[in-house]
Amino acid sequence: MTKLVEWLVGVTVILVAWAVVSFDLLELRLPDTYREVAWPMPLYLLVSFGCYSLATVGYRVATFNDCDEAARELQEQIKEAKEDLRKKGLKM
How far apart are CA 44 and CA 50, in angstroms? Predict the structure, then answer.
């Protein structure tokens, strides 16, 4: 099962549960307080998902690995390019 299918199944289950509670589709005769809490729930979930996404991106940026070997290789290539340009007559 791909991640997309997992997310779609999860969202569908939550949406069905929300619709059942909000619109009393199964005539469960739940107290009105349940409906009052359930009605803005999609907005709360959307805000929670946004916070989770922001925290995940922030964590991944904070723990991004440095590539010391690649940095050294790039510096060498820059030096070689500068020397090649100097040989061709470019003044820096």
Answer: 10
Say whether pTM exceeds 0.85.
no
Are the beta carbons of 45 and 39 closer than 8 angstroms?
Answer: no
SS3 of residue 82 by DSSP: helix
Per-residue pLDDT tens digits of the chain, which is 92 residues long: 899 999 999 999 999 999 999 888 898 888 888 889 999 999 999 999 999 999 999 999 999 888 889 999 999 999 999 999 999 988 77
Query: Can you tell me the distance from the alpha carbon of 76 to that of 80, in angstroms, rounded to the nearest whole number?
Result: 6
